[in-house]
Amino acid sequence: MEYIGFIAAFLTTISFAPQAIKTIRTKSTESLSLGMYLTFTIGVGCWLAYGIYLGDAPIIFANSITLILTSTILVLKIKHG
Question: pLDDT, tens digit, for every residue of 22-80?
């Protein structure tokens, strides 16, 4: 059943890639909510810590990548917002 966790992790993580790529390319963050990305990034960091605590590979995998993507968007929002 762990494969279901990896599928879910992959799908929810990859959903942030288009936004991250677009934001990196255009440097446009005007339409993005700082509050939402700040809160979400902190939440993802908490999920990552929880996954590490549990030793749960799908949670660690998904949230490591998502944290990189959301942090990138957050930094660009702060820098260019």
Answer: 988 998 888 889 999 999 999 999 999 999 999 999 899 899 999 999 999 999 999 88
pTM score: 0.84
- Are the CB atoms for 20 and 72 separated by under 8 Å? yes
Does the pLDDT of residue 81 top 80, yes or no?
A: no
Residue 20, Cα to own-chain centre: how many angstroms? Answer: 9
CB of 60 closer than 8 Å to CB of 52: yes
Torsion region of 32: left, alpha or beta (phi above 0 gives left; psi -120 to 50 gives alpha)? beta
In Å, how far from its chain's centre is CA 41? 6
The stretches of 1-81 forming alpha helices (DSSP H) are: 2-14, 17-26, 34-54, 57-80
SS3 2: helix
